[in-house]
UniProtKB/TrEMBL annotation, chains A, B:
Annotated DUF5060 domain residues: 4-67
Pfam families in the cross-refs: Apiosidase (PF13204), DUF5060 (PF16586), DUF5605 (PF18310)
Domain of life: Bacteria
Protein name per its UniProtKB record: DUF5060 domain-containing protein
InterPro entries the record matches: Apiosidase-like_cat_dom, DUF5060, DUF5605, GH, Ig-like_fold
Segments forming domain DUF5605: 455-515
Organism: Anaerobium acetethylicum
Length: 523, 523
């Protein structure tokens, strides 16, 4: 009997019908029955008469399965034995806990520090290789990217592969395609650029390539935040009919849903697309119907947040809607939506002409700290002008900036949190004071005091430059005090203190102070 | 006949009654009648049997006057001849134009760049002298300060003089005084610190000193934004009875209202005081009643703006109510209140422990640019830790920071504005694009374009670091393009351009680009 590692993929492959359009005309299903779960999964056609079914077991032990469908006159049965992970990277998929935080299903904390390489899977092979090498050496544990290729500034080359085969065979609506020529992001696109892709005929080679890349990301412990739709298009992929959209969605979910590192993002900047709310809700319903694992699902905005309170949305995937205050509002959005807040776009480190792509590394790292200490998550991107127009944010490649090591440093600090997750303890103040989420917040006015001290506190001063901060610690407790230079990545032990204590600081930006109450046995 | 310069002070001095409490028991009035105005002004008692009346003529030409009141059995008459200013600093008082901007009454633009030395008039003489020397060499044309002395962190010394004499003679309400011991800003104040000041008996020496300082500021071309009340008190001045407050207000207005550089600020951080809205409205009504010149009047907040739409408020005197977005909302407040927006407190350059007093010079200057280009005004302050606790924000002295020369540079750029005042031309963008207020804003969506160009534009990129910006200028016009480094204070001429133009920038923060359309005769 075949053994499968828990949360890894078990894949079955069968030959089946070839006539007509196998992507559309036939189905393949499998039912898996284990001690703790029974799942019906849909498979997909992979070209050349091959049908596949993928399954991710969520539990250890024996499963029976049964494969059937219109793809073949035959049906199949079998058994697998699911074993515990040996790979320490495999903590299962990421889910939501406490309606606030992200966590691996095995209970390991997941401190999301994401990055963005929108079109990396569409770049020449050597750049994709380089991207994976860069990711391997980086701290990032999530990457946002698009399945569809990109047409936009710095992204005017054709992709290496397309998701569809050429030659309209049926159903494409040329009228709907023409519409997108009005859109602002491709004013120089012409009707003749819109080639004759058949939105009912997937290019399996492309999707096989994506299989490999998702799998590689999984091996690196990186969540694949797959963005299904986006407006930066010139091939018509952004403007398919509802029917074609749903055919695409079902195919993608059937194909990639079993990867434990997959997240669904319905769209990048949904509000720049010509789709209606009804369209999005139908797409969301299709995902919910097909995705038996309930993968993390969201939708990303440009100017206006989608209604994140919708049932199908597992977490907020936010782009800042204000240039000056965004991650600093994390608590408000946590409260409003009662879901984890992931700041996927808060401007990128770089120096391109546009404001969303030319902030300093220092400022990006500040935004990471603000988001993280307030109980949210932040995302990185890099947009440095490059002689060959290879910008990390879209193409991947190598990093040129200086924020990534600092984000790594932040991640290590986060990993030291007692009780896994942080929250901001006070509402109005000139600092963020992060405490473990398990700590009951004490009711006091930080303007009046006296300050109440928790067992673990990180005080972050952002762009402020205090020369010192005073702590009126309890006389009867001892606190280890550390000064954290979040930019220079140092933690300086300031000793053990009780009572009124002045902590000297270097009057620089981006400093923090950590207080750790010592166990009474140590006193 | 005595000659007086327009907008300068004409002062009359008389001996009068001494018995009882002359501050309270007698009045002195004067009526001035000129060709263009008739004013009734109230005078004040100045100690030692001397009563004074001050008058600022708003017009040239001959005035007759008549002095009368209970101060004396006598009444007096006379004439003055008002002549045009010869001092180029004398542009008259500052007023409001277009419900948006500040302007001298002679039509000269007033680009307000303020500073803050709250308690400078309470410091030892040599520090006050130093403050005036610093001001003289600085760009500042407004200063905010308190009449009452200050008790707060870094300000624990007794003032050189008090505004009241000691020895309760009548009317002081010890109960009301006790109240302020509950207030957070003087938790270590004790009832015995509240000495026996008589709030009906002014210390004329103190007020004479203030006369001299206001006059010196006037000579330097600096507006005196006099703050009448504030919460940082331990002597009871913040907690006088309504009656005592009004006695004080009338005295101050009678005494200082004739100085053309005087503005009234009812309070600093009114919302930290124990007074009610009714109290503030009564105080405002008293000022309005006594101040025949209609000096600029406002009230300054801590956490919550006062209702700036009130009739008596001539301009918004704002402290930021959010740490991250404030001056960037200038247009919204201009629209909301339909009055000039003066950002009097947007955090200070410095390195003290508190967030409001430890931002970088770079950030303060950025805030000045944001406020100014959006059609508002900003205020400076400096809070560097000092071995003798002399901090500019409160004590004056000398400047230690690096923002002032940059504010001066900004002021010079503002002075080059055609049509005097700027406004932001677009609502949502990654830049501010300031244009002269007289320019009709064209209706276009900056996200879609094509951009409409005005004859004069300053594009400001704030903390962004673009390597270049593209301008799709009209082919049939010529524009002078300049790159402004707002921090290094350079203006680099990039030549004359038409049509599509890429302007290379150094990918640094705090840069701006200025476009100046050339007259057709130059083409």
């Amino acid at each position: 009997m075949k053994t499968v590692v828990r949360w890894e993929i078990f894949e079955l492959e069968y030959s089946g019908k070839l006539e007509g359009n196998p992507f559309l005309d036939y189905h393949i299903y499998a039912e898996f029955e284990g001690e703790h779960e029974t799942k019906k999964v849909e498979g997909f056609y992979d070209g050349a008469g091959i049908y596949r079914v993928r399954f991710m077991p969520s539990f250890e032990g024996r499963y029976k399965y049964h494969v059937y469908g219109t793809f073949s006159k035959e049906s199949y049965e079998g058994e697998i034995q699911v074993t515990a992970p040996v790979n320490t990277n495999n903590h299962g998929p990421v889910g939501v806990v406490e309606k606030r935080y992200l966590e691996y299903v095995d209970g390991s904390p997941y401190y999301s520090v994401g990055t963005t390489c929108y079109a990396w899977i569409h770049q020449p092979e050597e750049i994709q290789k380089e991207t994976l090498e860069t990711l391997q050496q980086s701290c990032f544990n999530k990457i946002r990217f698009w399945l569809f290729p990109k047409y936009y500034q710095y992204n005017l080359k054709e992709p290496v592969m397309y998701p569809y085969k050429r030659g309209i065979k049926r159903g494409q609506d040329p009228k709907r395609l023409e519409k997108h020529l009005d859109m602002k992001f491709h004013t120089d696109a012409k009707i003749e650029d819109i080639t004759d892709f058949d939105f009912y005929d997937f290019n399996e080679e492309f999707f096989q390539h994506v299989d490999r890349q998702i799998s590689r990301l999984c091996g690196l412990g990186i969540e694949a935040d797959i963005i299904l739709m986006h407006p930066y298009d010139k091939w018509g992929f952004a403007n398919m009919t509802r029917e074609c959209d749903l055919v695409y969605i079902r195919y993608v979910v059937a194909r990639y849903g079993a990867y434990r590192n997959v997240w669904w993002s319905l769209a990048n900047e949904y509000d720049l697309m010509t789709k209606t709310e009804q369209d999005w809700e139908e797409i969301a319903a299709a995902i919910k119907e097909c995705d038996c694992y309930g993968r993390l699902t969201s939708i990303h905005n440009c100017m206006k947040f989608y209604d994140y309170s919708r049932d199908w949305i597992t977490h907020c995937s936010m782009q800042r809607i204000d240039l000056y205050r965004h991650v600093e509002s994390t608590e408000e959005y946590l409260e409003l939506y009662n879901k984890p807040v992931v700041w996927d776009e808060i401007a990128y480190e770089g120096n391109i002409e546009m404001g969303w792509g030319n902030i300093a590394g220092e400022e990006l790292v500040r935004r990471f700290w603000e988001a993280s200490l307030r109980g949210g998550y932040a995302g990185h991107g890099e947009t440095y002008v490059h002689e060959k127009d290879i910008l990390w944010w879209s193409h991947g490649g190598i990093l040129h900036g200086n924020s990534e090591p600092r984000i790594d440093f932040l991640k290590k600090i986060l990993e030291e949190t007692p009780g896994k997750y942080l929250k901001n303890s006070i509402g109005i103040s000139d600092e963020v004071v992060a405490i473990p989420y398990t700590t009951a917040t004490k009711d006091f006015n930080p303007w009046i005091g006296p300050k109440q001290y928790y067992d673990y506190e990180i005080h972050y001063y952002g762009f402020g430059r205090p020369s010192y901060r005073d702590f009126d610690l309890p006389e009867d407790s001892q606190y280890k005090i550390e000064v954290i230079d979040t930019w220079n990545m140092t933690v300086t032990d300031m000793g053990i203190h009780s009572g009124y204590t002045r902590v000297l600081l270097p009057a620089k930006q981006y400093m923090a102070v950590r207080l750790i109450k010592q166990q009474s046995s140590l006193i």
